[in-house]
Amino acid sequence: MLLDDVRVVTIALNLPGPAACSRLRDLGATVVKVEPPGGDPLETYAAGWYHELHQGIAIHRLDLKQEADRRRFDGLLAGADLLVTAQRPSALARLGLDASVGERHPRLCMLRITGHAAPQDEQPGHDLTYLAMHGLVAPGILPPTLFADMAGAERAATTALALLHSRNRTGTGTHADVALEDAAEWLARPRRHGLTGDGALLGGQLAGYNLYAAQDGWIAVAALEPHFAQRLAAAFGVASLESGALAARFATESALHWERWAREHDVPIVALRNSPTQDPS
After folding, report:
1. Which CATH number is associated with domain 7-190?
2. Where would I find the H helices in 55-188?
3. Superfamily of domain 201-271
4. What are the φ/ψ torsions at residue 178 (nearest 5 degrees)?
5. Which of 97, 145, 249, 267 is 20 to 30 A from 127, comparing alpha carbons?
6. Helix or strand or coil: residue 273?
């Protein structure tokens, strides 16, 4: 595996820390997690997912406010390549996880996941507030998933790889911060640059890139590239794609019919699922 010689220690709870560390685990890293005596709240919120994310990860319950447990934790860091945290800077300082960590373990890299970038890194927040700050929440509608947390997890994993690469070149560990609000801002860039949003090119302007009601549900049509649009138009016997004509045609059959039809015609059309586990076949 790519990271089979890398050892990660994490004290990051909830998300996205566990998601990021699971990505490093999947790449071959050995991951050791230290949880407080009460455990990780994620296990209470979503036990199944918690266990999925922590499969193959050794978990230690330590009270880092106690000197004896802090010594045990420091022993774990002695053999580690990377420390992942998700606490605010003031909380880390109270636990002794500040610049002194690098003094004790000069080859250790430190990845700090925060809500906001410095100097606002003490400001509280969660996925919903990060998305709301960048225009990614519609009034009265909660997002269907934790976009900023999951994008932040991917950003954290790639930043971890950069830290390890730098350490391998220089021989000295360094640190980096990953702010979840920055991940939300990154997700919002297509909207900010006018690519998505009401009436934008990918916000309803193109007939071949839109949502349509089928006989018993809805379908997503993504015939964006010219060859897909031409293929769809040719299959329907029209010169070009128009929303009204497509809506009338798609309403004549079921959503799953159109998904199967699209596979046969090599056109990107998918039925909207009511749940992420719905089987389209």
Report:
1. 3.40.50.10540
2. 67-78, 89-94, 100-104, 127-133, 147-170, 180-187
3. formyl-coa transferase, domain 3 (3.30.1540.10)
4. -125, 115
5. 97
6. coil
Kindly give, in sequence order, each residue whose CB lies less than 8 Å from that of residue 118, ignoring residues fewer than 6 positions away.
Answer: 177
57-106 confidence digits (pLDDT tens): 999 999 999 999 999 999 999 999 999 999 999 999 999 998 889 999 99
Cβ atoms of 123 and 116 closer than 8 Å? yes
* Cα diameter, the chain: 76
For residue 227, CA distances in Å to 233, 265, 268 come to: 10, 12, 11
Where in the chain are the domains? 7-190, 201-271
Which distant-in-sequence residues (6+ apart) come within 8 Å of 242 by Cβ? Answer: 207
Q: Given this model, what pLDDT does residue 75 score?
A: 96
3-state helix, strand, coil in the chain (%, to 5): 45, 15, 40
Q: Is the pLDDT of residue 117 over 70?
A: yes
- Tell me, what's the pLDDT at 275? 59
- Over range 139-153, report the average pLDDT: 97
Residue 130, judged by CB atoms within 10 A of its CB (0-12, 13-18, 19+), counts as buried
